[in-house]
C-alpha cells in the first residue's frame, strides 16, 4: 500500500468508526495526557495512567480470550463481517489508549522519582521503539519506495540515534523494575504499532477494494485477535512489574 493514501485511509476508517467516536477517543487521550502532565495532582495523574491501562489491557484480553475464539468459530463471511465493523473502532481506540498509558506512565515514574538516570534510558527506549516500528510499517504496508515513508523513517532514525549518541556517555544502571518495564513496553509498542496497526489498515484496504476477499479479511482479523491476546498477557506482566516497582513486592 502506498503511503500516499494514508490521509484517505484515516479519514475513511474514521467515517466507518463513526467520526464522533474516532475524534472523541483521540481528543480525550490527548487532553487526559496534557492534564496529567501539567496541572494534575499525583493522585489524578495516577488515575489517568491506571484507567488508560485498564481500558487498553481489558480490551486486548477481551478480544484475544473471548471475542477471538468466538469469531474463529464462524465462517469466513461472518468472521469478515465482524472485523469490518470492529476494526475501524479498535484502530482509533487501542492506539490512543496505548499512547496515553505509556506516555503518562513514563511521566509518572519521573514525577515520583522512581526512574533514576532517565536520559540515556529514554534515548535507547525511543530508538528501540521508533526504528523497528517504522521498518515494520514499511514492510507490511509495502511502502519502502515511497518518500512519504522514507522521510519520517529517516527523521525518526537519525533523531533517535542522535539522542542516544549525546546521552550514552551518562549511561548508568537504573532501577531493575524500570528496565523490565521499558523492555515490556517496547514489546507492546513494536507489536501494536508495527503489526496490529498495519493489519488493521490492510483489513480496511481489502474491505474497500472493488472485490473484497472475505478470506483475507477474516485471516488478518483473526491474526490480530490472537496478537491482541498476547498483548494482554504482556500487559499483565507489566502490571505485576509496576506493582513491584511501586510497593516493593507482592
Descriptive account of the structure:
By secondary structure, the chain is mainly alpha-helical. The protein has one domain. It contains eight helices and no strands. α2 runs antiparallel to α3, α4 packs antiparallel against α7 and α5 packs parallel to α7. The longest helix is centred in the middle third of the chain and has 36 residues. The termini are far apart. The mean pLDDT is 90.
SSE layout and pairings?
Layout: H1 6-17, H2 19-37, H3 42-72, H4 76-111, H5 118-140, H6 147-167, H7 176-207, H8 214-247
Helix pairs in contact: 1-2, 1-4, 2-3, 2-4, 3-4, 3-8, 4-7, 4-8, 5-6, 5-7, 7-8
Summary, kept brief:
This protein is mostly helical. The protein is 83% helix and 0% strand. The chain crosses the membrane at residues 20-42, 48-71, 92-112, 118-139, 151-171, 177-197.
Amino acid at each position: 500500500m502506498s503511503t500516499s493514501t494514508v490521509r484517505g485511509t484515516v479519514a475513511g476508517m474514521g467515517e466507518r468508526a463513526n467520526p464522533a467516536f474516532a475524534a472523541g477517543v483521540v481528543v480525550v487521550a490527548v487532553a487526559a495526557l496534557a492534564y496529567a502532565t501539567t496541572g494534575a495532582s499525583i493522585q489524578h495523574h495516577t488515575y489517568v495512567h491506571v484507567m488508560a491501562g485498564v481500558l487498553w489491557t481489558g480490551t486486548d484480553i477481551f478480544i484475544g480470550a473471548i471475542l477471538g475464539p468466538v469469531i474463529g468459530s464462524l465462517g469466513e463471511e461472518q468472521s469478515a463481517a465482524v472485523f469490518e465493523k470492529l476494526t475501524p473502532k479498535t484502530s482509533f481506540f487501542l492506539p490512543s489508549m496505548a499512547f496515553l498509558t505509556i506516555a503518562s506512565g513514563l511521566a509518572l515514574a519521573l514525577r515520583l522519582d522512581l526512574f533514576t538516570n532517565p536520559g540515556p534510558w529514554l534515548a535507547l527506549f525511543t530508538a528501540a521503539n521508533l526504528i523497528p516500528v517504522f521498518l515494520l510499517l514499511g514492510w507490511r504496508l509495502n511502502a519502502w519506495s515511497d518518500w512519504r515513508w522514507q522521510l519520517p523513517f529517516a527523521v525518526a532514525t537519525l533523531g533517535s540515534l542522535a539522542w542516544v549518541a549525546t546521552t550514552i556517555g551518562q549511561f548508568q544502571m537504573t532501577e531493575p523494575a524500570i528496565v523490565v518495564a521499558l523492555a515490556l513496553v517496547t514489546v507492546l509498542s513494536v507489536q501494536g504499532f508495527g503489526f496490529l496497526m498495519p493489519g488493521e489498515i490492510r483489513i480496511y484496504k481489502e474491505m474497500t477494494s472493488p472485490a473484497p476477499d472475505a478470506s483475507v479479511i477474516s485471516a488478518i482479523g483473526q491474526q490480530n485477535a490472537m496478537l491482541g491476546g498476547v498483548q494482554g498477557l504482556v500487559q499483565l506482566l507489566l502490571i505485576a512489574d509496576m506493582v513491584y516497582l511501586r510497593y516493593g513486592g507482592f
